[in-house]
Amino acid sequence: MRNSVLFFLVTCAAVAQEPASLGARAQRYLVDLIRIDTTNPPGNETRVAEYLKRVASANGIGAELLGDKPARLNFVARIPATVHSESAMPLLMMAHSDVVPADRSQWTADPFSAELRDGYIYGRGAQDDKSLLAAELAVMVELKRRGVKLTRDVILLSESDEEAGSTGINWLVHNAYSKIDAAFALNEGGASLDVRSGTHIFQIQTSEKVPTRVVLTAKGTAGHGSLPRPDNPVVHLAHAITALAAASQPVQLNTTTRRYFSEISKLPDYAWLAPLLGRLEQESTAGSAANKIEATDPELNSMLRTSATPTMLSAGLKVNVIPNRATAQVDVRRLPTETRQEIETRFRNIINDPAVTISPEPGQEMPATEPSSLTTELFLAMEKIFREEDPGALVVPYMSRGATDGSYLRQKGMAVYGVPIFVREGGESRAHGNDERISPGNLGRGTELLWKIVLTVTGG
Ligand SMILES: [Zn+2]
């Protein structure tokens, strides 16, 4: 008797603690997730995976931890369809569990306390990517609690190591792909923001540039600094990086960027783009049109061509010694329509110096893929829901400069979308920056949007 009274009291307490609204639940999850420090390196994402599993199990959702490194496991949960249809492949919701390091001395709040101050929740991961993870978890729990009749399975994935080596998603793709295989996926990488004239833009990420790190090495003869030499590698390297940084890379559009430019040029803020669009399509005029775009908006230019940014230099040990070698690292962001070989050949021609060699920086290379389709049920559902949310808004597909784990799934044939459910507050992104934060209102509205999207494509 005593036991059952105790059980009754404990159950009441648990029910009383459970937030009533979807947004409040997402907020509680986000606070918990921020307080689990998963700074990568070292990551320790298993602690987030275990937290997710506890929430899933408490709500009767089947889940497992997967991977080959005990401290860096991925999390996968699934709610099976109730209405069976042969052709309906699952919906995947994904969000990475690691975060980039935070320099505490640069923050006004503890990055791992999830402090609520001035109307914001502060913490590393508040934007990238624990807010999305919290929203997805809240939606998953809501589906289960309401017993929604699903026409397809819904999978929740939280992968480790997105911010450094993408080893989490790679392990899953090679060892457990059937557990995450889906028709389409919702991922990070979208953006929801206001342009100056006040129009809101929902940018659905369907494509991304490919990080392609390159090392330039100049070789020459070592010698005394008092006698200048024509083969001094420091001088050859300096010429090479200057030539590469100054060169115009060729312009290429894909289905996503073509539609993006065409749509945004209809806004008053971007009316200046309209006369340039036809010129972008002609090989003879594309370069000069892109240069004009670059002068006004470098971010738009970055969607049109591969970029090459020298970022690290290394040469010499002493001021009076000419070294026999000098190296530079270049952060290349390649258009997904180009191959590494194509850009290396082009860079060799631009540098045009046999003393300088170009080689790939060792390490994992992300795949280059076609943009995800603009006609899937999921893309159309997002368009419809974002338009309902703000009838004056523009909903556009978008190619990001930054890379995500989405490319590994696009390579497998899955349509992956960066879903823009959270608004860029104050017009700024603090992802990877200091005092990263999100307001509870933004989190709540975003979670409601995600809920509507998921219901639309799962027949609920
Ligand atoms: Zn991220």
What does this 3D model show about the protein?
There is one protein chain. The chain is of the alpha+beta class and 460 residues long. It has 15 helices and 18 strands. Strands 1-2-6-3-7-17 form a six-stranded mixed beta sheet, with helices on both faces. A hairpin with a 7-residue loop joins strand 1 and strand 2. Helix 2 crosses helix 15, helix 4 crosses helix 15 and helix 13 crosses helix 15. The longest helix is centred in the C-terminal third of the chain and has 19 residues. Bound molecules: zinc ion (ZN). Zinc ion (ZN) binds next to loops.
Number of β-strand runs: 18
In CATH, the homologous superfamily of the largest domain goes by the name: Zn peptidases
What's the CATH class label of the largest domain? Alpha Beta
Strand order of the largest sheet: 1-2-6-3-7-17
Count every helix, treating DSSP H or I runs of 4 or more residues as helices.
15
